[in-house]
Amino acid sequence: MRTQRTGYWVGFVVVLGLLTVAPLVLPEFWRRFVTEILIWGLLAMSSDLLIGYTGMVSFGHSAFFGLGMYGTAAALLALGPPNLWLALSSGLVSAAVVAAFVAYFATRLRDIYFAITTLVFSQIFYVIIFTWTDMTGGENGLTFSQPPFSIPGLGSGRFTPVTLHWFVLGVVTLSYLGLRRITQSPFGMVLQSIRENEARTRAIGYHVERYKIVAVMLSGLFAGLAGVLYAIQNKFAAPDFVLFLVSGEAVIFNVMGGMGTLVGPVAGAAFFLLLREAFSRFFPEYYLIPVGVIFTLMVVFLPQGLLGFLRRRLNA
Amino acid sequence: MIPFEQLLVQAINGIVTGMILALVASGLTLIFGIMDVVNFAHGDLFMLGAYVGTTVFVTTGNFWLALLGACVTMAALGAALQITTLRPLLGRDPLTTILATFGISLVLQNYALWQYGPVPRKIMEPLTGHFQLFHIEYPWYRLLIAMLSAVIIGGLWLFMKYGTYGIWIRATTQDRLMASAMGIPVPRVHTGVFAIGAAMAAASGVLFAPLVGVNHAMGFDFTLRAFVVVVVGGMGNLGGSILASIFLSLLEAFASLWVSPAQAVIVSFIVLILTLLFRPTGLFVPTPK
């Protein structure tokens, strides 16, 4: 147990070190690519809290991600001088409100019904955002300028690609440690017991619905955080990111990387983006054909995902 | 105030799209009821069926051949998909079937985009006549669609009720283990059911194609609507699905008198959410004791 834990932390420090150095040595394209992997990885981790730890497949994470983006855009466009922290909190609040709403209704249902309800909710938000042109810019979305990085009391400076990468890395690392702490807490243990046997968990006396609601809300909050980071990196919010495909990708990341490991989904995101990059060199628009085939094969033959074999060690 | 004629036209429109939706949804509910498979690719089978229909139509110029060709092709494809991806998943968590069929859906959708391009295609309707409905000309073809859908669904019902294979299918639904003990080849029944479901999706795709252009993204929309219908009607309940299709399509048709059709979809979503909250077993099934 102790050696496993030491091994885990050594691995953690090595990976973190590599990710910190990465933007200094990589060329421009790959630097951006790694930052993007981290952001999608955060979305994947947030959805892992539900899929891997609570046993609920959400097909609605695009709603939280997208609302994070639009919340950021709203704060940057409507309120005074652009402020990073204000944008961050506005994005998180929007995602949290939506997550609370979805959680309240969707958690009354189980299995596929939960999956369908979350999907329907995200579709409702998509329709609202897409058709409410005055407020959301409709199909064109909203564009804004990047807020400067600032630490209250210490001053501020513009983001460069490298500092932006470090900022994203910092947020994602803290979120990872937070999520890991959540899954190892007594609360996380109850979630895992819901995954293993919901009826028995209820019989022991846990209020299963409340745990599920909190799980969906937490998950939505982290998904919203990923949306905020993506909006800040790309300087826009668009309805495409509320569309079902983003939720689908979050599920793909989980299956490819290995559910219930938190690190696995990030690896899954990296694997997916690499596959997309590789295949889009040969057939630019149809990369989803080979990626879809690989995904389906992995569901059938490798249900544990790429990092599933490390499951025990990663949760140590 | 909206004139009465307009309400009546929307009511007929609602019933026509409702029958198409019922055809899609009955395939979906059949597959779910028998195999516990949540087929996320169902709308894409619908879409691909419509495309196969356009291909046959362009080569032969005959609508009925296109309908038949699409059904046969999609039944074969459905059987192949079931054998390669769903059969190995039998006995695993039903959620894995969502994931697997989601993968299939991605592949089919992008295959259609690759093969047929982004420009929508159209099939000419086999019946071009109109009749006078108040002051507008209403096409006969729309009524024909509703009737054909009803005939196909009725045929399915008769087959399930009296056909030998239909009885096999019902036996497999009730008790998979017992059915196989009685000598019913359960794996083959599963493949057959998936093929029937795929063929029904293809048939509705071809019937629907003359009304709107066929494009690669229409599948997802129909998957979602068919899901809403199947849940509102009660999972695995054929009659409930048909009633729910008509009910929801009528609601959407009336709602689109006031808001844009894109927003009218929200009405069915709200009905779904209310159903799930208050009658999770379905609106059109007797209250369970």
Characterise the protein shown here.
The complex is a heterodimer of chains A (316) and B (289). Chain A has 316 residues and is mainly alpha-helical. In chain A, 74% of the residues lie in helices and 3% in strands. Chain A contains 14 helices and 4 strands. In chain A, α3 (61-78) runs antiparallel to α4, α3 (61-78) packs across α10 (208-234) and α4 (84-106) runs antiparallel to α10. The model of chain A has no long low-confidence stretch (mean pLDDT 85). Helix content of chain B is 74%, strand content 3%. Chain B is globular. The longest helix of chain B is centred in the first third of the chain and has 32 residues, at 4-35. In chain B, strands 1-2 form a two-stranded antiparallel sheet. The mean pLDDT of chain B is 84. Chain B has one domain (4-91, 135-278). Chain B is built from 11 helices and 2 strands; from the N terminus they run ααααββααααααα. The chains are: A mainly alpha (316), B mainly alpha (289). The interface between A and B is large, with 36 and 38 residues.
Provide the domain count of chain B: 1
What's the average pLDDT of chain B? Answer: 84
- Number of beta strands of chain A: 4
Bin the helical content of chain B: over 70%
Major sheet: arrangement of strands of chain A: 1-4
The arrangement of helices and strands of chain B along the chain is HHHHEEHHHHHHH
Proportion in helices of chain A: over 70%
